[in-house]
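Posting for a labmate who doesn't have an account.
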Amino acid sequence: MAAVPDTSASAGAWYSDPGIDSDVVLSTRIRLARNLANFPFPENFKGDDCDRVQILVFDAFSHFTDPDSFQAVEVHNLDENGLKILTERGVVGMPTGTGIIMRSDGRAACNVNCIDHVRIASFVTGLDCDSAYTVCRSIDDEMQQYVQFAASYEFGFLTAGIADAGSGMKISLRVHLPSASYTGRIEELSRFLLSKGLSMTTCFGSGGLFGLSLGAYYQISTVSSFTGSEMDQLAAVTAAGKYIIETERKIRGECAENKPTALHDIVYRAFALAKYSRLITFREAVETLSAVKWGCDLKYITGIDDSSLCALLYRVQDGHLNFLLRNGTFTFEKDIEADPGQRTNRLRALILQEAFEKGDL
């Protein structure tokens, strides 16, 4: 089969960057919900409301200080796989809305006419709420020079969902908690987060080795935007994130001390699967990446860094693989060349093998 093109750090994706405390917190995402004054919320649009809102938002970005660093696209002009890639990267959700404005470096995006008129989002690796907020706030400030957002002194920014009113801000952390999951401590952490006004959900579904969440990847998010100022919310999530980091590291150390044989078995099996499998499904890839990352953080595996493992979570998803298959030249084994699903699983296996070449047990 042809060599796999390098789509990791050279691609310049934000998720390839090194991050603060990225052994536990893979990434931070901040989203600001805004609505234009004098228009109904998207679900109540009438006539040409939808088009008028999109025109106003697109026009605002065209007047930014550096307009060439943003690209606006109407959702109906995206093909199915392009939309899938943006969904995998967390840029769009459901409903998809009618327009998307992306910053050229991929670290910020604005969705138009989804649940709210405008949803500004920024992405950074590691635990770094301040940096993510700075990006969102700069876009928000520039937009307010050209459009008027709906707000009141009593409720703050007015949004389609009551939980988003106030600051309009939602903060999310993607975390990796294999030690807490393995030892059954996740419920304890979930209760702690709930007491702080935060929720914990799975990132890739449930099942697998850790049962509760595939790969022990979780998303921690604020529940309401109406509690305190933006600074209060940022400080609360940062403090909770640091507690989660300290707890996972402490449990990791206890596991390494008390159950080294079982942990070595889990890590070595995953490393062997990645190195020698011919076909790997996405669920298997998530489990494998989780165990290998755990092994790296336990110092059982050397030569692979956290930023590469974070990037692989995106690189092995179907949309990204389909893009490579469309734009690359590959020669597959005869028994799978006519099967799209098997070709995807084969390419996924090759990408993992390439990524782990420098890994050493």
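Reply:
Got it, the structure tokens are right above this. The two ends are 27 Å apart (CA to CA).
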